[in-house]
TrEMBL record:
GO terms for cellular component: cytoplasm. One of its GO terms (biological process) is phospholipid biosynthetic process. GO terms for molecular function: phosphate:acyl-[acyl carrier protein] acyltransferase activity. This is Phosphate acyltransferase. The lineage of its organism: Bacteria, Pseudomonadati, Campylobacterota, Epsilonproteobacteria, Campylobacterales. Pathway: Lipid metabolism; phospholipid metabolism. Homodimer. Probably interacts with PlsY. The keyword Lipid metabolism applies.
Length: 329
């Protein structure tokens, strides 16, 4: 049975939505949930029938968003430290955390270690597109400064994820740039273009709008650009929703039409919500680590767990190592 270590207290809203997400996941599929946290606080939140599929690992500390990422290495009694140690010691198959993303990434990289030939792990996230298939974007925050070889590795890892997890047989990989022409981009992206061109899946430079029109499956960029892209997209989606609500309230005719459009609005909200994807995998570490949004609700945690199970049941890390070894010769 798949064993998932869950940082039970690391999210912005404490244990409640995390435990609720675990219970929702257990209702739909069987796995062993290893909850890391204060059992006196989290055990009362769990209905008796689900306790048979749950283990508790005691941890009294929580890394807050105000703490530095590297501080986590010294805080050995923190929930995320103990969760990552379980993965390092192969006592679990995956880790899910909605806590401090920098701490999770640092601990996973330094304690669990990187895959062979991976210089830097990358955070990958799914973003909605008009074809309703979602586009994988990496890196979205792990590496602010990158060299061309790092972007090349991100391309290989993204391609592997698209094939093994998303089921795309022939994924299209693009390099985020300020134009589709080969001459566009900064010095790093121009050099990366030459390296990524060795992949059959590479379609060339791609502009930001192509993430959302579904013309590519994997968009590669450094963590600085990727994080700005991610936060901007979240802000735009939120703003559009608020604008629509305001305009509907101003017009009686629009209010009448909104009843008919409710299903459309519901579908739109579902597509742009991070709840649907649950979390972002940290690709390139020697295990499965899913980093969830700090504001994750129970649905997001449930989907993060499903993502972890799918990852743990796949051969993605083996595929990444094999591909990187091929190009390292």
């Amino acid at each position: 049975m798949i064993r998932i270590a869950i940082d039970a207290m690391g999210g912005d809203f404490g244990a409640d939505p995390i435990i609720s997400g675990v219970i929702e996941a257990l209702k739909e599929t069987e796995f062993k949930a290893v909850l890391v946290g204060d059992s006196n606080a989290i055990k009362p939140l769990i209905p008796q029938p689900y306790l048979k599929n749950i283990e508790f690992i005691e941890a009294t500390e929580v890394i807050s968003m105000a703490d530095g990422a590297t501080d986590a290495l010294k805080r050995k009694d923190s929930t995320i430290y103990k969760a990552v140690e379980l993965l390092k010691d192969k006592n679990v198959d995956a880790v899910v955390s909605a806590g401090h993303s920098g701490a999770t990434m640092s601990l996973a990289t330094l304690r669990v270690g990187r895959l062979k030939n991976v210089s830097r792990p990358a955070i990958a996230t799914l973003m909605p597109n008009s074809k309703e298939t979602a586009t994988l974007v990496l890196d979205v925050g792990a590496n602010v400064d990158c060299r061309s070889e790092h972007l090349f590795q991100f391309a290989i890892m993204g391609e592997a994820y698209a094939k093994e997890i998303l089921g795309r047989k022939e994924p299209k990989v693009g390099l985020l740039s300020n134009g589709e022409e080969e001459s566009k981009g900064n010095e790093v992206s121009k050099e990366a273009f030459k390296l990524v061109s060795r992949l059959d899946s590479f379609v060339g430079n791609a502009e930001g709008n192509q993430i959302f029109d579904g013309s590519i499956d994997v968009m590669v960029c450094d963590g600085f650009m990727g994080n700005i892209l991610l936060k901007t997209s979240e802000g735009v989606a939120d703003a559009i929703g608020k604008i629509i609500k305001k305009q509907v309230k101003k017009s009686p005719l629009a209010m009448a039409g909104s009843v008919l459009m409710r299903k459309v609005f519901k579908t739109l909200k579902k597509q742009v919500s991070y709840d649907e994807y649950g979390g972002a995998p940290l690709l390139g570490v020697n295990g499965c680590v899913i980093i969830s949004h700090g504001k994750s609700n129970s649905k997001a945690i449930k989907n993060a767990i499903f993502q972890a199970i799918k990852f743990a049941n796949s051969n993605i890390n083996k595929v990444i190592e094999e591909e990187l070894s091929h190009f390292a010769r």
